[in-house]
């Protein structure tokens, strides 16, 4: 059965889905479990936003440049990319709880090591350790929530995950800015440690075991290695290019090694009996479109958020605290809008919110890239902090509207394999984010005025991000189909 046929069957059976008998009711225990797994996602979100605020200070503190500091972001994202699809399988094989708690331990230990890193190279290594834990959070959390809430409430619960990340987007930048201004960039990594300890202690007692305990499938380590070599070689080629400004033979060699690694990866995945990525899924139009959307979204949107504090520091001369505050209105809006959007998915479907979200992000990128200073609004002066915050906040509306729809649209292509689909989706999105972030760093290496360089990047991204819209029309709008089926049933009943 193809994805489209599966979606059509789900749509025609909407009444059964709405009144699923075996779906567990949502009670205090289910809510408590949701809070625990959400706390892990919150910890990961705090870490990523704190790191974004601390980039200028790490450049100075470690006596390095933006090209190498960029690896602090990209190495973390790359390892997450590799771990996510593996985590989906491990979650099924060893149990959601075991994998989840192991991820918490690795993330917490990695955070402690980052805080004491003596140079940028070890900091990058310790970020990789962090990422091994962080990459397993979302697939295992999605699996736990899917098991606990059942088919009837799964979509809403997983959609609410989208509102968890912006909470970290509020806490992280503001706490990180305050910590950096009063202590140092090293202290910002220590914030995760007490959260991780509390999470581990509570999770041991409250989380259900779930999943299978016996090993039923192998992990494609060879495929993961080929993928890592391919992406790392391309990224290192970008690093050499950024440090040398001009393209030379060494850069070309690294690019060729990277391309060869990715070609071998695709060839291996097509032959493996238990691949890291099931290429057969990508041959179906719906899966291909969903993951093309995720790849483009990661490449064209993730970098924007990572570099906002850097832009505020270089273009507007703001302190770490001020640069961190700029992200707060965006996060507040994302929380509110994504929560509302999660409950309205059945009425409006998935496609329309995703398109509206992309358009709003594009508008935000274009306006932020204008680099306006000391503007007046109806004769009243507007501070740079308020102005940039308002422009970036528009993107918060966009992500809040489109995020829950994109999450559920991908999952409902094969809801019986939610952990693996979540991992696959995360892999494509973070791969795009890795390459997008590395490309921005490379672009900035050719600018003496990096504030101006970022302004040009944002304007360019505002146009390119519209390329994300066409794949949306190839993704089945399961929610809209169910809503229409339910409406027809109601109408026929009235007749």
Descriptive account of the structure:
By secondary structure, this protein is mainly alpha-helical. It folds into two domains: 416 residues, Growth Hormone, Chain: A; 55 residues. It is built from 21 helices and two strands. The chain has a two-stranded antiparallel sheet. The chain is globular and about 55 Å long. The two termini are 34 Å apart.
- Low-confidence segments: 1-23
CATH architecture level-2 label of the largest domain: Up-down Bundle
Number of domains: 2
Oligomeric state:
single chain
Give the strand content: under 5%
Order of helices and strands: HHHHHHHHHHHHHHHHEEHHHHH
Computed CA radius of gyration, to the nearest angstrom: 22 Å
CATH class placement of the largest domain: Mainly Alpha
Morphology call: globular
Number of strands: 2
Amount of helix: over 70%
- Describe the main β-sheet briefly: 2 strands, antiparallel
CATH superfamily of the largest domain: MFS general substrate transporter like domains
Averaging pLDDT over every residue, what do you get?
Answer: 79
The helix-and-strand class reads mainly alpha
CATH topology name of the largest domain, in short, is Growth Hormone, Chain: A
Our count of helices gives 21
Strand order of the largest sheet: 1-2
User: What's the N-to-C terminus distance?
Assistant: 34 Å
């Amino acid at each position: 059965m193809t994805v489209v046929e599966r979606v059509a069957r789900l749509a025609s059976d909407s009444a059964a889905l709405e009144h699923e008998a075996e779906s567990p009711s949502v009670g205090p225990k289910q809510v408590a479990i949701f809070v625990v797994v959400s706390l892990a996602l919150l910890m990961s979100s705090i870490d990523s936003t704190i790191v974004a605020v601390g980039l200028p200070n790490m450049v100075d503190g470690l006596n390095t440049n933006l090209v190498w500091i960029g690896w602090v972001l990209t190495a973390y994202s790359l390892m997450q990319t590799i771990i996510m699809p593996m985590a989906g399988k491990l979650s099924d094989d060893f149990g959601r709880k075991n994998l989840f708690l192991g991820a918490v331990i690795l993330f917490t230990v990695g955070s402690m090591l980052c805080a004491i890193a003596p140079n940028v190279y070890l900091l990058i290594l310790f970020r990789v350790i962090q990422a091994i834990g962080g990459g397993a959070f979302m697939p295992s959390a999605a699996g736990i929530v899917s098991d606990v809430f059942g088919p009837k409430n799964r979509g809403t619960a997983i959609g609410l995950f989208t509102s968890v990340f912006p909470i970290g987007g509020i806490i992280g930048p503001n706490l990180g800015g305050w910590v950096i201004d009063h202590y140092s960039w090293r202290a910002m990594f220590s914030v995760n440690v007490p959260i991780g300890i509390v999470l581990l202690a509570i999770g041991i007692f409250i989380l259900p075991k779930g999943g299978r305990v016996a090993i039923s499938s192998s992990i494609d380590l060879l495929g993961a290695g080929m993928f890592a070599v391919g992406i790392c070689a391309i990224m290192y080629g970008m690093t050499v290019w950024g440090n040398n400004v001009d393209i030379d033979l060494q850069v070309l060699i690294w690019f060729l090694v990277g391309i060869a690694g990715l070609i071998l990866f695709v060839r291996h995945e097509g032959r493996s009996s238990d691949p890291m990525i099931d290429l057969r899924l990508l041959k179906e139009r719906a899966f291909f479109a969903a993951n093309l959307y995720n790849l483009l979204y990661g490449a064209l949107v993730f970098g924007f958020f990572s570099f906002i504090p850097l832009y505020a520091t270089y273009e507007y001369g703001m302190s770490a605290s001020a640069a961190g505050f700029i992200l707060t209105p965006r996060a507040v809006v994302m929380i509110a809008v994504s929560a509302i959007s999660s409950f309205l998915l059945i009425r409006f479907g998935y496609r329309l919110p995703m398109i509206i979200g992309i358009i709003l992000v594009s508008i935000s990128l274009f306006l932020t890239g204008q680099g306006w200073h000391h503007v007046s609004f109806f004769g009243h002066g507007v501070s740079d902090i308020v102005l940039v915050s308002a422009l970036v906040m528009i993107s918060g509306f966009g992500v809040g509207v489109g995020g829950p729809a994109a999450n559920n649209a991908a999952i409902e292509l094969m809801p019986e394999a939610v952990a693996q689909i979540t991992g696959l989706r995360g892999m494509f999105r973070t791969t795009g984010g890795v390459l997008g972030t590395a490309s921005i760093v490379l672009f900035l290496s050719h600018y003496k005025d990096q504030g101006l360089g970022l302004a040009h990047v944002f304007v360019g991204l505002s146009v390119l991000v519209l390329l994300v819209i066409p794949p949306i029309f190839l993704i089945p709008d399961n929610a809209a189909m169910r809503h229409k089926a339910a409406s027809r049933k109601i109408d026929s009943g009235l007749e």
